[in-house]
Design brief:
The chain is mainly α and 208 residues long. The chain contains eight helices and no strands.
Length: 208
């Protein structure tokens, strides 16, 4: 779970940095989208390296889901009878939301691909015009709202994931545990705000 989580975390950061180019206008954003398909040329054909990256991400996602199932089943086996009353003491909302948050994120990823990568979910989809497709999609407030909810789930997932990684490595011990939790929250917060800024700007007419 840790290794696959690192791969997915790096993708989330890289994807955000690319998406923020939407604030530079259509030309810059479409140039970025086109560069993703021509990266590696002339050693790779158009889109070949991009598909290789997609396969790596798909493998990381599969490994992450498999690890989540294994951990969940182990947890259930450890206590087959649920608590009569469970009081959260050393846990956080981010930790308790990891399972349903992961399912929500997975569902949104599928929709996101159908919306912006392949087009069936976007009635205004124009092949090759990534900027238009993004703006046309997020200008619909239900889509923007779903995007916001998914990104909040991503933020919680990242926060708990970073904190858990430090816990696994034995780094979250006094007196450093407080600022490490704060650092995890800061990183997750910045990523979440970055993603949320895009639909907010589209709905506000700042990006159109």
């Amino acid at each position: 779970m840790a290794v696959s989580g690192v791969v997915l975390f790096l993708f989330v950061v890289g994807h955000l940095l690319g998406n923020l180019k939407v604030f530079q206008g259509a030309a810059h954003f479409n140039a970025y989208a086109e560069a993703l398909r021509t990266v590696g040329a002339p050693f790779f054909g158009r889109g070949q390296l991009l598909w290789a990256i997609r396969l790596v991400l798909l493998a990381a996602l599969g490994a992450h889901l498999w690890a989540a199932v294994v951990v969940t089943r182990a947890s259930w086996r450890a206590r087959p009878i649920g608590y009569h009353r469970l009081t959260a003491v050393e846990t956080t909302y981010a930790a308790r939301s990891m399972r349903w948050g992961g399912v929500l994120i997975l569902g949104y990823v599928v929709y996101h691909l159908l919306d912006l990568s392949f087009g069936p979910a976007n009635p205004s989809f124009v092949p090759g015009d990534a900027y238009h497709n993004l703006v046309a999609s997020l200008a619909r407030w239900p889509v923007a709202a779903a995007y916001d909810v998914a990104m909040l789930a991503v933020g919680l997932h990242i926060y708990h994931g970073l904190w858990s990684a430090g816990q696994t490595l034995g780094l979250n011990r006094p007196p450093t545990s407080g600022w490490r939790r704060g650092l995890a929250a800061l990183i997750a917060g910045l990523i979440t705000v970055g993603y949320l800024s895009i639909p907010t700007a589209v709905l506000a007419g700042l990006v159109r």
